[in-house]
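Follow-up to my earlier ticket, as requested here are the two runs.
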Amino acid sequence: MLESEILLHCVRLIFGGLCAFAAIMLCAKRREAGVVCLLAFVLTFYARTVYQILLSLGIIANEGPSFFDIPVLTILFETIPPFFLLLALIFMIFKNK
């Protein structure tokens, strides 16, 4: 693995961790459905980033059940974060009306 890839992984982990920390702090101040869904989005997006890094480093294998030759875990990590973001935006839109 190239040093530039390792540096990129470190930057992703650092900024993802900072985003998760900020989202947790925001959720501690404002307990609203939109903010909680935003926190869930950030945490699942960070988990997706960690999963992708572990896959690229070869620490975990992409084996197990698959759906149309795509591993189910990959499908979940690709679809759950946008779902939580969509929920957060919907809750925030309808809160203002």
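Run two:
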Amino acid sequence: MTEAEVVEQLVEFTNILMLGVSLIFSIVSAYVVALNYFIGSSNFLARLGSFLFITLVLGMLVVTMMGAESTHQGLVARLHELEAEGALTAAGNAVLANATPERIGALTGGQYSVDDVIRFCVWAGLGFVYVALGYLTFLHRWTPDAIPVSIEERK
């Protein structure tokens, strides 16, 4: 795999990551709306079923993101191989700098790469969202009074 192909794939990885984050926002938003109007006032079994379903959906996204992380690590390893061969251009060096803690030491004290910080933020955010959804599903008492919705038969 050439450097150009690796860089292209890493840029595509960033696009996939952003798509995954936007999917999480969409799914969580729809779930919170459903909590407000339907699930929040349901019995425990219905809330448990809904929470298990959202767990399944978020779990599939987590597994997909884990696979993407593995692919990302392989692409970065290929850049390290190209660097060892002396075949890395400025673009490859810039991409490798994002993935290597030693290259951006001034920014993070040499302990974390930009990729590490992004990965931490995504996982921490997903964990926080999951705990918050658990609270909203089982402990919060929903009163959909912002916009009262009722289903009535047409005349």
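The only thing I checked on run two: The mean pLDDT is 86. Let me know what else you need.
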